[in-house]
TrEMBL record, chain A:
Pfam families: BPD_transp_1 (PF00528)
Annotated compartments: Cell membrane
Organism encoding this protein: Streptomyces lomondensis
Keywords, comma-separated and alphabetical: Cell membrane, Membrane, Transmembrane, Transmembrane helix, Transport
Protein name: ABC transporter permease
Ranges that cross the membrane: 73-94, 101-124, 139-158, 179-204, 239-260
Record membrane topology: Multi-pass membrane protein
Domain ABC transmembrane type-1 stretches: 69-260
Family, per entry: Belongs to the binding-protein-dependent transport system permease family.
Cross-referenced InterPro entries: MetI-like, MetI-like_sf
UniProt cross-references to PROSITE patterns, sorted A to Z: ABC_TM1
From TrEMBL, chain B:
CDD domains: TM_PBP2
Species of origin: Streptomyces lomondensis
Family matches, as PROSITE patterns: ABC_TM1
Protein's name in the database: Sugar ABC transporter permease
InterPro entries assigned: ABC_transporter_permease (IPR051393), MetI-like (IPR000515), MetI-like_sf (IPR035906)
C-alpha cells in the first residue's frame, strides 16, 4: 500500500492536473494564437500559422479592453476599500460590545452570507435614486453584497485578539478613532488580505450584477465587455479573439494570487474553519 | 475625549459604586462607539435589505417597460409563471444544479486535499495549479468549456466522436454542474486542507497504534474531524450555486429547450423583455427557496458537528 501510494500519488496528481487544468488552459493558449479559420472548430493542435500578436492586438482594440480594464478598476477598487473599511468598523463594534441590540445588528448584517441579492428591485431602487447605470450605483451594490462576508470574517478575527493592546492605548489617552486606525486596522492585516481576495474573486469576474446595474455601453466592465464581444453576431465563434481576451482578462487575478499566494492561502483557510 | 476616558478609569478604580463613566454613557459606548458600525449598517440596509424588502412588493404589481405607471395586480405574475411552467422548472433545475454542483465541488475538493495533504514543495505547486480555475472568471470558464464540448469542439475532435455534449435535455445539466465543480474545487480543496491540518497528530498516531488502516482512519477519525470544513464548504457551495449565472449563460444560455434555465438565467431573459415585475416575482421565489434550503441546512450541519 505505502509503496503504491508513494509512487502512485505523484503520478496521479500530475495526470489529474494535466487533464483537468492543463487541457483547458492549453486549449485557451493555442486557440488564442490561431487565425480565425483554424480557430472556428477549436481543437488541441498547435497553430499551423502563428499570429498571437495580431489576435491580442485585435482583442484589445475591438474588445475595448483598455476602457473595460479602467472601468473594472474604477468599480472594483472602491468597492473593495469600502467593504474593508466599513466592514472593519462594524466588526470592531460587533466583536467588542455585548448586548441584545448588538447581536441583533450583527445577525442582520451577516444575513447577506446566505440571502441572495434582490437584483431586480436593486435596479428599481437605483433608478429612483438616480444611480442606475452609474459607477457609484455599482459600487454601492457590490459593497452591500460583500459587506456580510467581510463583517463575518473580521468579527471572528477581532474576537480572537486580546483586548489588552486596546486597553493599553486607551490608558495612554488614545481616542477610539485613533485606536481603530493605529491598532485594530493593522492587526486585521491577515484577514484584510483574505477579504480582499474574496471580494476581488467575485467582483472582478461578475457579469450578472454588472449587466443589471451598468448595462452595456461606456461603463461596461471587463467581463461585461467579454460577454458583449462573445455574444455579438459579428464575433460569434471567433474563439481566437474570445480566448485572447480571456487570457488578458485573467492575468491581473493570477498576478495578484502569485504575489500574495501564501497570505491568501492562509487567510482563506484560517477564516473558514472556525 | 482622551482625558475623559482616562478620568473614567481612575474614578472607577478609586471609588467603587461611584457613577460609571462620564456623561452617563456606558463604558462600551465610549470605547466602541456605534458610529463605527453605522456606515456599514446604512450601506448594507440601503443596498441589500431594502431591495429585498421591495422584492416583497413589486412582484404583485404590473411594473414593466410597457406601462408608465405601476399598479397593484395581486397574484397575476405568479399565476403567469406558474401557468407557463417556468416556475416549477426553474425551481427544479436550480435545486438539481445546486445539489450536483455542491456534490462535485466538494468531492473534487476533498479528493485533491487528501492527495496534496503533506506540505512538500511538489504539493504546494500543484495546490496552486488546482486553484487556477478559481481565479479565472466564471464567464471565461464557460466559454472555455463551450469550445471544448461543442459538437465541433476539441473533445469530440480528440475522441473522434460526434457527441452533442451541450445538446442533451437530460445530461447537459449534469455536465454544466461538473464545470461548476471544476471551477470552484480549488477553494474547497484549500478549506479541506486547513481542516486536515487542524487534526491533532496524536489522534492519528493513536488510530495507527490501535491498528487502523488508512480507510478506517479516514472514516473514523479524519472525516468526523473535518465536520466544520464540511459545514462551511457544503453551505457556501449550495447557496453559491443557487445564485449561478455566468457558467450556464456562457455554455448553454439556459438551453437546450430551457433544460438548464436556472433562476438567474430566467430573470436575465425576462428582464431583457421588459417584464420587470415578472422577473421580480421569480427573484422572490429564489429568495424563498434559498431561505427554505439554507436554514435547515445550517442548523442540521451545526448539529452534526456537535454530535460527531
Amino acid at each position: 500500500m505505502t509503496a503504491v501510494w508513494r509512487y502512485g500519488r505523484p503520478s496521479l496528481v500530475v495526470l489529474l492536473a494535466g487533464l483537468a487544468v492543463g487541457v483547458p488552459l492549453w486549449l485557451v493558449a493555442v486557440t488564442s494564437a490561431k487565425p480565425q479559420a483554424e480557430a472556428i472548430e477549436p481543437n488541441l493542435d498547435l497553430p499551423r500559422h502563428w499570429q498571437p500578436s495580431a489576435n491580442y492586438a485585435d482583442a484589445v482594440s475591438q474588445g475595448e479592453m483598455l476602457r473595460g480594464f479602467l472601468n473594472s478598476l474604477l468599480v472594483v477598487v472602491p468597492s473593495v476599500v469600502l467593504v474593508l473599511l466599513l466592514g472593519a468598523g462594524a466588526a470592531w463594534v460587533f466583536a467588542r460590545r455585548k448586548s441584545k441590540l448588538v447581536s441583533a445588528a450583527y445577525a442582520l448584517c451577516i444575513s447577506g452570507l446566505l440571502l441572495p441579492p434582490a437584483v431586480i428591485t436593486i435596479v428599481m431602487e437605483l433608478r429612483q435614486l438616480g444611480l442606475a447605470g452609474t459607477r457609484p450605483g455599482m459600487i454601492a451594490v457590490y459593497t452591500g453584497m460583500y459587506l456580510s462576508t467581510s463583517i463575518f470574517f473580521m468579527t471572528g478575527f477581532i474576537r480572537a485578539i486580546p483586548t489588552e493592546l486596546e486597553e493599553a492605548a486607551r490608558m495612554d489617552g488614545a481616542s477610539p478613532s485613533r485606536i481603530f486606525w493605529r491598532i485594530v486596522l493593522p492587526l486585521l492585516r491577515p484577514v484584510i488580505a483574505t477579504a480582499t481576495i474574496m471580494v476581488m474573486l467575485y467582483a472582478w469576474s461578475d457579469v450578472f450584477y454588472a449587466f443589471f446595474v451598468l448595462g452595456g455601453g461606456d461603463r461596461a466592465t471587463l467581463p461585461l465587455n467579454l460577454y458583449q464581444v462573445a455574444s455579438a453576431q459579428l464575433y460569434l465563434n471567433n474563439w481566437h479573439l474570445v480566448f485572447a481576451y480571456v487570457v488578458v482578462m485573467s492575468l491581473p487575478m493570477v498576478a495578484v494570487f502569485l504575489v500574495g499566494q501564501r497570505k491568501i492561502v492562509s487567510g482563506i483557510t484560517s477564516g473558514a474553519v472556525k | 475625549m482622551a482625558d475623559t476616558v482616562v478620568r473614567t478609569r481612575k474614578q472607577q478604580s478609586a471609588a467603587h459604586g461611584a457613577p460609571k463613566g462620564v456623561g452617563r454613557l456606558p463604558r462600551a459606548a465610549v470605547h466602541h462607539p456605534w458610529w463605527f458600525a453605522l456606515p456599514a449598517i446604512v450601506v448594507f440596509a440601503g443596498f441589500f435589505l431594502v431591495p429585498n424588502l421591495l422584492n416583497f412588493y413589486y412582484p404583485f404589481t404590473n411594473w414593466s417597460s410597457y406601462h408608465a405607471d405601476i399598479a397593484f395586480t395581486g397574484l397575476d405574475n405568479f399565476r403567469t409563471i406558474a401557468d407557463d411552467g417556468s416556475l416549477l422548472r426553474a425551481i427544479r433545475t436550480t435545486l438539481v444544479y445546486a445539489l450536483l454542483a455542491a456534490l462535485f465541488q466538494n468531492g473534487f475538493g476533498l479528493v485533491l486535499a487528501l492527495l496534496l495533504e503533506d506540505d512538500s514543495r511538489f504539493n504546494r505547486f500543484f495546490r496552486a495549479v488546482f486553484f487556477l480555475p478559481v481565479l479565472i472568471s466564471a464567464l471565461a470558464t464557460g466559454y472555455v468549456f463551450q469550445a471544448l464540448l461543442d459538437q465541433d469542439g476539441a473533445l469530440n475532435s480528440v475522441l473522434g466522436t460526434d457527441i452533442p455534449w451541450l445538446g442533451s435535455t437530460t445530461w447537459t445539466l449534469v455536465i454544466v454542474t461538473l464545470i461548476h465543480g471544476w471551477k470552484w474545487m480549488g477553494l474547497s480543496m484549500l478549506i479541506y486542507l486547513a481542516g486536515l491540518k487542524g487534526i491533532p497528530g496524536e489522534m492519528l498516531e493513536a488510530a495507527k497504534c490501535d491498528g487502523a488502516g488508512p480507510w478506517r482512519t479516514f472514516w473514523s477519525v479524519r472525516w468526523p474531524m473535518l465536520a466544520p470544513a464540511v459545514t462551511f464548504n457544503v453551505t457556501t457551495a449550495l447557496i453559491g450555486s443557487m445564485n449561478t449565472f455566468d457558467i450556464v449563460q456562457a455554455t448553454t444560455g439556459g438551453g437546450p429547450a430551457a433544460s438548464t434555465e436556472v433562476f438567474n438565467i430566467y430573470m436575465f431573459r425576462i428582464f431583457g423583455q421588459g417584464l420587470y415585475a415578472q422577473a421580480s416575482a421569480m427573484s422572490l421565489v429564489l429568495f424563498l427557496v434559498v431561505v427554505a434550503v439554507a436554514i435547515p441546512l445550517v442548523v442540521g450541519l451545526r448539529r452534526r458537528e456537535q454530535l460527531l
